[in-house]
Amino acid sequence: MKKSNDTKIPRIIVNKDLAEDDDDEEEETQEEKKSLKQSLDSLQNILQEFQEGCGLVASYLERISNLCHFEEPFLTVLFCGLLIVLSLVLWLFGLRTVLLLWGVNKFTKKLRDSNPVPTNEVNNLIIRVPDYEMVEDAKILD
User: Fold this and answer.
1) What's the rounded Cα separation, in Å, for the pair 58 and 131?
2) Which helix (H) or strand (E) covers residue 48, if one does?
3) Distance of alpha carbon 95 from its chain centroid, rounded?
4) Alpha carbon of 23 to those of 20, 27, 34, 105: distances in Å?
């Protein structure tokens, strides 16, 4: 039998990287905090844009409702006149002819005028009608 001098001595390994690991963990937590703050900021921006979009849609729907309820009588009569004229044009010429003329007009607009000014007449009409908030602000206080 051999005697072995191979006794196992527990060795303590000092990890020099422990201090570096602590620094890395601190940087990671700071990055997580920054990324959390950035994600909250981006979420806040998205929700703000969504709220503004919903407000815009609600405003347009209120304006259309006020257009039908004669809140602005001149514009409502003008709108009714336009609907009557549109009905007569559709009755006289038919939908196919009207769509054909509209398409020809749309696609030849650049040939006729090199710098056409884009306008949306329906949007211009609706913008001139007040929404509920404007109607409430315009009421006479008793």
Assistant:
1) 9
2) helix 17-68
3) 33
4) 5, 6, 16, 68
pLDDT, tens only, 98-134 = 999 999 988 898 888 888 788 888 888 888 898 888 8
Cα separation, 114 vs 33, in Å, equals 54
Q: How many angstroms separate the CA atoms of 54 and 122, rounded?
A: 20
Contacts of 130 (CB under 8 A, 6+ apart): 63, 66, 71, 72, 138
Give the span between the Cα atoms of 18 and 11, in whole angstroms: 17
| 34 token code pair | 């920054």
Question: Can you spell out the DSSP letters for 59-110?
Answer: HHHHHHHHHHTTSSHHHHHHHHHHHHHHHHHHHHH-HHHHHHHHHHHHHHHH
Per 3-state DSSP, the chain is made up of helix, strand and coil in percentages (nearest 5) of: 75, 0, 25
Predicted TM-score (pTM) of this structure: 0.60
- DSSP code at position 69: T
DSSP state of 10: -
